[in-house]
Amino acid sequence: MVHLDFPSRGSLCSERPELSLPNHPPQNLTVATTGASGALFLKQFLLAVEPDERVQTVNFIASDSALRVMAEELGLRGRANLVRRILGRVSRKIQQQSNDDIGANIASGSYPADAMVVLPCSVGTLARIANGIASHLIERAADVCLKEKRPLVLCVRETPLNKIHLRNLYRAADAGATIFPVIPAFYFRPPSLDAMAREFAYRVLAHIGLPQPGAFRWKG
């Protein structure tokens, strides 16, 4: 019999903490991208957030590994003007942060971030978040969301999953994160990869209180 060493019913960690949801659509978002494949999903997420008037500020962090992925998948090389090159235009709200800047605004619980999305989230980043290892800004900002009971969405991208991954998924969820795997929908018959990634981004945005008017809705 395989044992995953999950907490028992009587464990101190067996109850999911109540999230402190904002009483308004999120106005201040933290968006991070890491070294998992799926940069197109991040691009479509930022393209949706940029024109959304409900969102006032987006703090964006890309890990070094994410830069390698974006170079391979989006043809974007280097960190300079990264947001402009992802969007194809200058952003009015998305502010790029250095993952090495552990003293950035979003590293503090006093900074009023409403929610955080990690898209895509590598299993290495998942492991550090799940185990409280906050040596870089992405993990520290996620740790702040958990301790302040703010929404944290981890769009994990990995397959197959080993027992270490499964334990870390459980630990992150048990601490208050939402595990939102990068699993796109096919029932709306997306005509392109962009459309498929865009619909997934819309689902993530709806989950944090920012439903998009162009999202597909199943009518049965």
Architecture in CATH?
3-Layer(aba) Sandwich
* Estimated structural class: alpha/beta
Backbone CA Rg: 17 Å
Can you tell me the CATH topology? Rossmann fold
- CATH uppermost class: Alpha Beta
Number of helices: 7
Let me know the CATH homologous superfamily: Flavin prenyltransferase-like
Mean pLDDT: 93
How many E-type strands?
Answer: 6
Q: Roughly what fraction of the amino acids lie in strands? A: 5-15%
Helix content: 25-40%
Shape: globular
Could you give the order of the helices and strands? EHEHHEEHHEHEH
Cα distance, first to last residue?
40 Å
The biggest beta sheet, please? 6 strands, parallel
Major sheet strand order: 3-2-1-4-5-6
Q: How many structural domains are formed by the residues?
A: 1
SSE layout and pairing:
Blueprint: E1 28-33, H1 39-49, E2 57-62, H2 64-73, H3 82-87, E3 94-97, E4 115-121, H4 123-130, H5 137-147, E5 152-156, H6 163-175, E6 178-179, H7 193-207
Helix pairs in contact: 1-7, 4-6
Main attributes of the structure:
220 residues, 34% helix, alpha/beta, Rossmann fold, six-stranded parallel β-sheet
Give a verbal description of the structure:
By secondary structure, this protein is an alpha/beta fold. It has one domain (28-207): Flavin prenyltransferase-like (Rossmann fold). Helix content is 34%, strand content 14%. The chain has 7 helices and 6 strands; from the N terminus they run βαβααββααβαβα. It has a 6-stranded parallel β-sheet with strand order 3-2-1-4-5-6, with helices on both faces. α4 crosses α6.
